[in-house]
Amino acid sequence: MVIMEGMQNRVAIYYILEEVLQQDTGGLEIRLVKNIVSLASDQMRETQEATTEVKVAASNTLVTLASCYFDHVMYELHCHLKPPKLPEEFILVTLANLSSAYARKCIPFVRVTLNTMFSMLEFVKDGRLRQAFCGVLIPKVGQLRLCNHFLPVYTHVTSNWLTCEEPELKQAIIKALGPMMSLLLHKEEYQDQIFEHLSWLLEQYNENTDVFHVTKSLSQLLEVSGEYKIPLPDGKFQAICSALHNQICSQAKPLSMENHTELVHCVVQLARSSPDDLIAFLHSQLEIENEAVRVASLNLLRAIVGADLPETRPKKCLIVKAVKSTFSDQNATVRKAVLHFIQRLLSLQSVENCAAWDMVAHVFTEFSVSTSKLTLQRT
After folding, report:
1. Residue 256 and residue 245: Cα distance in Å, rounded?
2. CB under 8 Å to 8, separation ≥6 — which residues?
3. How far apart are CA 184 and CA 193, in angstroms?
4. What is the residue-level pLDDT of the chain in tens, covering all 379 positions?
5. What is d(CA 232, CA 240) in angstroms, rounded to the nearest whole number?
């Protein structure tokens, strides 16, 4: 009981200290800074007495302190990255949080961090420690000069850790893969290796996992592919299209708004890299007589048109042709989706005549049908 009260007191002290440090502008005596760093580091690494709550509080205090005294905190953490001895979990957790909070400040330390961690990876067998390692592996700033340093770590993780069964570790790997894959994709010599692991990433949609992180990692990869016009292999492109479309259409699991937004973003990125192939895929889906499939495809075409990308502007007639294939569908939900598409199309400045007038004519047709039905109901 006394020990637990002592632990709670430590946590409370760290919270107060963190609040004070948030107001600091760099005026603390360096001796005091070093004392705080040393104390927090010691308590993060305690294996007997300190509770997880104390370690979290100590770690958060170091991250806050790093705002003004970054080098002091980073030096302390690197003192405990000494292979072949494995670091304590919260050393890695704090490194990951520093990377997230102060990405640019971390850049000078990335090489030494990655090289040191790579020399330890083969000895990391514990799931929680692997999870902590994954947190550090997420590059927050895309620095092409770091590609060669990430490759050995990426290769080890994808060769040895993808078969893990622990849900938390799998989530950590999924989160780390997206940033690493998108960074390495810039180098042509690494692209085949990256595309190879796309299949594993897509398979995670079928697992009992938080699919948002799968979509997020995929999104990061597709952003690079779209921006730098890096073509996806045909088989991979079709597999990605199908996986994204199935996620949006699926009735098996409720789709979170966060995941839905990211899925649509992925499709828009595909439109940047291969607009013709994507439009052809969505056109093929519109030919399937299924409400959910057609509505999802129409909504995606609406998002593509609304993004008004330079790659898709010349393709509006192709998109309209695809949408027109659903004009005969009498399903009310599909008809509504068509009208929403038309509304988005006509709101744009860059609408070709061939696209606009066919759509306007359809609006009048729908208005006429609705008016007729209303008249029949009244009589």
Report:
1. 15
2. none
3. 9
4. 434 455 678 899 999 999 999 998 888 999 999 999 999 999 999 877 778 999 999 999 999 999 999 999 999 999 999 988 999 999 999 999 998 899 889 888 988 998 999 999 999 999 999 999 999 887 555 556 778 888 999 999 999 999 998 999 999 999 999 999 999 999 999 999 999 999 999 999 998 778 999 999 999 999 999 999 999 998 999 999 999 999 999 877 788 999 999 999 999 999 999 999 999 999 999 999 999 999 999 999 999 999 999 999 899 889 999 999 999 999 999 999 999 998 898 887 666 655 566 676 666 666 555 544 544 444 4
5. 10
Token pair in block for residue 369: 């049908």
